Amino acid sequence: MRTVGVEEELLLVDPETGEPQALSAAVLARATRELAEQDVFEKELHNQMLEFATHPQSGMDELAEEIVRIRGEAARHAGEIGCTVAALATSPLPVRPSIGMNRRYQWMAEQYGIATREQLVCGCHVHVSVESDEEGVAVVDRVRPWLSVLSALSANSPFWQGKETGYNSYRSRVWQRWPSAGPTELFGSAERYHQRVAAMVATGTILDEAMVYFDARLSARYPTVEVRVADVCLRAETAVLVATLVRGLVETAAREWKAGEDPVDHSVSLLRLADWRAARSGLTGDLLHPATMRRTPAETVVRALLDHVEEALADSGDLERARAACAELLRHGNGARVQREVWERTGSLRSVVTTCVRQTQS
């Protein structure tokens, strides 16, 4: 059984006003006093963000319990200094982000200017174990067409700087401002993958391998493939669904590679269009079907993803849970829909944030 780990970025907000608060250093100081959590919480690019990482898990029940527990711990630590956490991929309310003072973040601010200052966005990254770099690159090559569906499922950022964007995942549009972000061409081998990464670092445009922000990449720290396309999910069960589907995609891709099946050779241009469509429509309109790259109702595309990973999910015991979670999302909506429904009902972005604070820990 492949292990799965999840990294989530949370927004620190005032519990009354909903405005982002630059208090990550204080929250981290409290968290690290408890020895068991020293390796759980991390500082992020902006002082209004808090990141955490789960341990590698084989079972999705255990992963779900850990995500819920750590979200609760984050809220407790934040509450001790007068703020709280929200699983929001962008701030609905206007904010002036402040950048952390370490050397890496200051280099990024100098190098990328306003693109760095505006990167107050929160994502969900999923790590799945692989046996080798060769298997990992084979997986990266084969999961490419399906990643936009994960973006649609997780979409949780319809507002930006106090305005309705018209997108379900505006975070993904902001993220694309990094020069190394987005989908990749086929690599074909671990050697070519590492050559490409080395060539990118050698340009001096990015600082190191960790700044290669491919949609799916080999982790620079762990023996995993890391999928980085999802918004942070409003509800913990959606994050578990994304992790379940990512593991299914990784296992399916590895089996295809071992069986000698070639990856689908969609161009990066088409993959970018699929990403854009997923960000724009989420689950409320058409997506580009991963096989045909033609506009198709979102429900049909989600069903195609489940069909694609059905055997892997059945073998891990996750199939029925994934089907039920997808049906629930299609019926009741993802984070973007929740935010818009609160906004339409109340006309208050503050109410949007406070509602999402409650659902973050539910």
Automatic annotation (TrEMBL):
Signal peptide: none annotated. Its EC number is 6.3.2.2. GO terms for molecular function: ATP binding; glutamate-cysteine ligase activity. GO terms for biological process: modified amino acid biosynthetic process. Gene3D superfamilies: 3.30.590.20. It comes from the Bacteria. Pfam families: GCS2. InterPro entries: GCL_type2/YbdK_subfam (IPR050141), GCS2 (IPR006336), Gln_synth/guanido_kin_cat_dom (IPR014746), YbdK (IPR011793). ATP-dependent carboxylate-amine ligase which exhibits weak glutamate--cysteine ligase activity. PANTHER family: GLUTAMATE--CYSTEINE LIGASE 2-RELATED. This is Putative glutamate--cysteine ligase 2. It comes from Streptomyces aurantiogriseus.
